[in-house]
Amino acid sequence: MKDQTLQIRTSPHLKRPMATNTIMLHVVLSLIPVMAFAVYSFGITALLLITTTTAACVATEYLLNGKERGKQNIKDWSAVLTGVLLALTLPPGFPLWMAFVGGMIAIALGKFVFGGLGQNLFNPALVGRAMLQAAFPVAITTWTETLVNGRFSHIIPSSLTIPFLEPIKADAVSGATPLSAFKFDKVSTEIQDLAFGFTSGSLGETCAFLIVIGGVYLGVRKMLNWRIPVGILGTVATLTTILYLSDPVTYPSPWMMLFSGGLMLGAVYMATDMVSSPLSTIGIWIYSFVIGLLVVLIRIWGGLPEGVMYAILFGNALAPILDKSIPHRIYGMSSKNQNKNRA
Amino acid sequence: MAIKKTTPTKVGFFQSLASAPSTDEFIKGLWRENPTFVQVLGMCPTLAVTNSLTNALAMGLATAFVLVASNGLISSLRNFIPKQVRIATYILIIATFVTLIDYGIQATSVSLHKSLGAFISLIVVTFASKNSIGLSLLDGLGMGLGFTFALSCLGALREIMGNGSLLNFPIFGPAYQEWVVMILPAGGFLPSPFGYFFLML
């Protein structure tokens, strides 16, 4: 900032050099390996899907920002991040027009209804996905096989559905995700396939290994709170180990629970959204425990094979209550006075 | 209903009509004090029955009938009802008309009665007017038609999006992709933010 004028404003005056756009840019950069792997395993369709949702998010953000506040924050990468995250939660053959609608809803309903950047109660990408899941339940659970021959020259036919029409019924074999295979057919998937992404699933959820690397990078740079992924994954691991030891036939192994589905992506990139997670450290531990618990409950006893999305949205809804009920240190105050000044 | 009346800058047809007290009583329910859009009353039936235009129209017209009939009867009897049993009498009168319309719908179409369910009986939770007979009738008519209008808008939108049809007549052909969420109760909340953004763009 090169302002020559005298600026009068309240504290804090000292700023960290890390601004919103720096953090957002680094999160997007750390997702590049995940995106690259998605394009590698699902081909050109994945690239189209990521482009579509990102374009939808950025365009919606641009339009609504310009109209509502007369101020553009389109350059801060947050809309790009929402678009990329939304694409990573969608199945590869998802019709592009639905993905575009999802991107628009993510920004409009997930972010601007609450007042724009920094005001949203829920993670915008997950709001978009939840809406798509409710509106098009069949399309969003139609999976395609990974590593198909000719994936770089042919687009999955259902992707190019004409807007507002039903997706074309693909004659290709539809692959079950590891979680649905276990839930409905009791088939376990090999752990190395899960960790390195040689399974069917949403774009970004297959390769747990790359997500962990991205998460460690962001954690080291202090761009995400490491307690959230550690708390969620720790809760899931502990609970499923207990269940697995009690009955290894009925319950999936903890490794399978950790590395399958959207858990890694959700724990590392979605639950750690700075806006929609709690402020205090105790609040963060409770928040991550609740999300982990809900993931286990929904996956094992719920009707759906995957529950990370609903678990995180529920955790987001809990965050304001945690912030209200647990005193947290207010910036620029000594710990002695802060409780007095809280009200 | 303490909504401040705005002075119109340009006197149009509706404003000049609205300047007469009787027409104003009628117009206000249709638009300015619309029970659904402005007063946000009766949201429970609004969310539950607007999943198709047929349901919405039936619900709205039933409510309009009950409002007009009970408003008329109550305002004509208002000088004869003792204060102590006022509310009980009002509810008795309204419940009579609700039962009438409930049986009427059941006799005409059982499937419609099933889809409207308990919400017909819940019309009994309406309000009574203290005006003269003529004004009360107009007030009831305006409010009832305003409610019908609002429900029909939502019902048409939700049926078109959620089912690809209007009044059970398919308008987009068999390949149309339904937005399942729109005909679920949760879909009742969605038209309002959509409308808000539509107005902003």
Largest interface, C-beta closer than 8 angstroms, per-chain residues: A-B, 20 and 15 residues
Q: Report the principal-axis shape of chain B.
A: globular
Total of domains of chain B = 1
What gyration radius of chain A follows from the Cα positions, in whole Å?
Answer: 21 Å
Multimeric status of the protein: heterodimer
Helix proportion of chain A: 40-55%
User: Strand order, biggest sheet of chain B?
Assistant: 1-2
Sheet bearing the most strands of chain B, described?
2 strands, antiparallel
Report the structural category of chain B.
mainly alpha
Can you give a write-up of this model?
The complex is a heterodimer of chains A (343) and B (201). With 343 residues, chain A is mainly α. Chain A folds into two domains: 19-175, no CATH class; 209-327, no CATH class. Chain A is 55% helix and 0% strand. Chain A has 13 helices and no strands. In chain A, α8 runs parallel beside α11 (263-270). Chain A is globular and about 65 Å long. In chain B, strands 1-2 form a two-stranded antiparallel ribbon. The longest helix of chain B has 31 residues, at 133-163. Chains A and B meet through α2, α4 and α5 of A and α8 of B.
Helices and strands in order:
The complex is a heterodimer of chains A (343) and B (201).
Chain A: H1 20-42, H2 44-68, H3 78-88, H4 96-112, H5 124-135, H6 178-185, H7 191-195, H8 208-220, H9 227-246, H10 254-259, H11 263-270, H12 281-301, H13 308-325
Helix pairs in contact in A: 1-2, 1-3, 1-8, 2-3, 2-4, 3-4, 3-5, 4-5, 5-13, 8-11, 9-11, 9-12, 12-13
Chain B: H1 13-18, H2 21-30, H3 43-49, H4 53-77, H5 86-108, H6 110-116, H7 133-163, E1 165-166, E2 169-170, H8 191-200
Antiparallel strand pairs in B: 1-2
